[in-house]
Amino acid sequence: MTSKPPQAATAARSVATTPPSAATVAAGWLHTAKFLTTAPELHFLPALDLPEIAFVGRSNAGKSTCINTLTQQKQLAFASRKPGRTQHINLFSLGKQNVHDAVFADLPGYGYAAVPKQDKIRWQQVMANYLVTRENLKGIVLLCDPRHGVTELDEILLDVIRPRVEKGLKFLLLLTKADKLTRVEATKALSIAKLQAGGGQAMLFSATKRQGFDDVAQLLWQWAHPADGGTAATPTPADAVDAPTDAADDVAGQSA
């Protein structure tokens, strides 16, 4: 029986003991996401002590696809064939070995014209109240199709959350469908988004090409595990700028 040369044995040991990369840790954590509960109204949401990260955006911004891509699950978040029809707040728990350490909240898409006006108003108010009052909310991901840019409804939402962002709430303006842009268009869109991110960050993302996957995964890990000092997650800071001032009922009023 032949024995391995000393250098081969040393290499094998080093491979075995090499810790996983920050991106691998974050991706593995995201893959643990499981459906927790759904709520048609704010008061039906359970009170939780876990850090909660909300995903918001216009209908057709690619929110469900983004969540499914990040969690590496095909149908965790329901992608309706009729945009604007999903009208519940859906919660997903994360954490390995059934020890939950964070929650994702998938909020209904807004701004779809086919939804009845009264439903729009009701959901815009529910969403505004959630973003302003949810105590364990630690971060918000606003998804935006860069081909259309930040819309009037997105700007109203930014006004709603600005006071909390100024007090430390984490915020990411995520430009989805980045594969649809040329390199020049992507660079321009990201530069504009950084100016609009209001004390938060801006990144490009493509579910199709998995562009930005590692950076977003690590950032979300960092938000959910501040006690770890973000050791598993420090995306390259090509993405932060300063702040846009106050509103809550505007979301219901101006966008109906």
Written overview of the protein:
The structure is a single chain. This protein is an alpha/beta fold and 256 residues long. The protein has one domain: P-loop containing nucleotide triphosphate hydrolases (Rossmann fold), CATH 3.40.50. It has helices spanning 6-17, 22-30, 63-71, 117-133, 152-166, 183-196, 213-224, 250-254; strands spanning 34-39, 52-57, 89-94, 102-106, 137-144, 170-175, 201-204. It has a seven-stranded mixed beta sheet with strand order 1-3-4-2-5-6-7, with helices on both faces. The longest helix is centred in the middle third of the chain and has 17 residues, at 117-133. Residues 232-256 have low confidence and may be disordered.
SS summary, helix count: 8
| DSSP, total strands | 7
Order of helices and strands: HHEEHEEHEHEHEHH
Second-tier CATH architecture? 3-Layer(aba) Sandwich
Helical/strand content category: alpha/beta
The overall pLDDT average reads 82
Low-confidence stretches: 232-256
Shape: globular
Biggest β-sheet, characterized?
7 strands, mixed
Q: How would you name the CATH homologous superfamily?
A: P-loop containing nucleotide triphosphate hydrolases
Distance between the termini: 78 Å
CATH topology-level fold name: Rossmann fold
Radius of gyration: 20 Å
What is the count of distinct domains? 1
Q: Assign the CATH class.
A: Alpha Beta
Helix-residue proportion: 25-40%
Taking strands numbered 1, 2, ... along the chain, how are they ordered across the largest sheet?
1-3-4-2-5-6-7
Q: Report the β-strand fraction as a percent range.
A: 15-25%
